[in-house]
Amino acid sequence: MLKKIEAIVREDKVNDVKDALSEIGIVGLNMFEVRGHGRQGGIQLVGRAGVYQVTMLPKIQINIVLNERNLDEALEVILKSAYTGEPGDGIIFVTPVEDVIRVRTRERGEQAMSYPGDIDSKRSRQNG
Amino acid sequence: MNIEISAGDTAWILVCCSLVLLMTPALAFFYGGMVRRKNVLSTLTLSYIFMALIGVQWIVYGYSLAFGSDINGLIGGLNFLGFQNVGALPNADYSKTIPHTLFAAFQMMFAVITPALITGAFVERVKFKSFLLFSLLWATMVYDPLCHWVWGQGGWLKSMGVLDFAGGTVVHVAAGFSALAFALVIGPRRGYGNSSIEPNNIPLTVLGAGLLWVGWFGFNAGSALAANGVAVNALLTTNTSAATAGIVWMMLSWLDGRPSTLGIATGMIVGLAAVTPASGYITPLTAMVVGAVAAPLSYYAMRFRERRRLDESLDVWACHGMASLWGMVATGLFATISVNADGANGLFFGNPNQICIQILAVVTTMIFSFTMTYILAKLLNISIGLRVSPMEEEVGLDISSHGERSYS
Lengths: 128, 408
Known about the structure:
The complex is a heterodimer of chains A (128) and B (408). By secondary structure, chain A is an alpha+beta fold. Chain A has helices spanning 14-23, 71-81, 109-113, 119-127; strands spanning 2-9, 30-36, 43-46, 51-54, 57-67, 90-97. In chain A, helix 1 packs antiparallel against helix 2 (71-81). Chain B has helices at 7-32, 40-67, 100-118, 128-151, 156-160, 168-186, 202-221, 229-255, 261-275, 284-307, 316-334, 352-383, 390-395, 397-402, and strands at 70-71, 75-76. In chain B, strands 1-2 form a two-stranded antiparallel sheet. Chain B starts with 6 loop residues before the first helix and ends in a 6-residue tail after the last helix. The A-B interface holds A 44-55 and B 196, 198, 252-253, 256-260, 262-263, 266, 299-300, 302-303, 306, 315, 318.
């Protein structure tokens, strides 16, 4: 079963998250620049005379597709590396993925997800 | 004084001409940074076009209406139409040591930037065609007469002895109160007050403010029309007022949150606008008072405007109108003939009469520019319309009015 993680994190935490993920063997990912707000509803900025509310703040959304068995480990890594404890740390969505097709090889599903040095091969090396 | 060309004076005013010309592009970028990204080119064009529009108008008839031979103290005659009779020789009334053409060219740069200042009131929604028509009418029916009243030989305010060294009334009060009137007629931008309208590029604005400061040396020190002590004094008072207002604005901004870059740059411009009428008549020390009072005056005028939900979008009224209103009054307080023998003493130097003349000039300018602009804008609004359609406004004026975009 394949899953997709959409992790919306602080712009300045993106490199930490990326490095932490690649350490456990998750190298394939892409990201969007997104804008939005959560419960906090944005922040105040200073204008010409006084402050004003900015509701839509810039964040980065990191997209990862992986095997369900690797989900919790990846989530844990993201939660740790994106954390500051202040409002605005972000949010993570997890959804099921129907299929994956690699363009070059036409491999599908789980096969399309595996490559040398990926999270599974790293784990089996540790266990073996 | 001898009427003879001085090479030094001529060289200096030639430089000042270029410095004041630079202020219009500088203003374009000052404004261009503060609008949304879909209206940057439109905002730049609203300022730039005046170099073309007034560059022609001034030669054809603008200069003549402002500085031609006086008719009842109200308007210049047509004797300088098409720059006829404006030659390389000095003019006894206006330019005793520089060519008459140079004086006329220097004045042209003032006529160019003044209507450009007003554009801050109606950015992001004005219909370009109506704007062009308004601008030409405004230059002809507001700027040229006002310029004659205050600076033209025989102009009624000049004859009364009003002190306006570099355009407190003619340029800044006129632009500020015209902006207010235009904003009332055209109405707020779509979504004003509901969604936040953020500046697209504050660095552009900061760059523009810096270039404005540089250009202002030409504007104020050049208004001495000579390379002399009065010019140097004007340069110093200009710098001092801008510096003081910049510091005070930074403090006000800090008290309300953080010392914002946009705020500091704005404060500097306010200090420059305030000292403009006074620059050739007051000392550098009193220029500090001018700047220090101008900053809170404009700051709270801006807050007041925001509270009233009046979308005078880039605060031309608060920054230029209110600051220079104070500057005109300050001239009546602090002017001293020890700085400029051609000037007068103010209230603090034993001449209470001067402040009455100053106030009369300011009130006249406020009422005249506000009323004329209100009428012109209203007429255009009911005839050809002042605004673009809601759809065009939503898309942005860069694409809908000019068919281009700033960034791709």
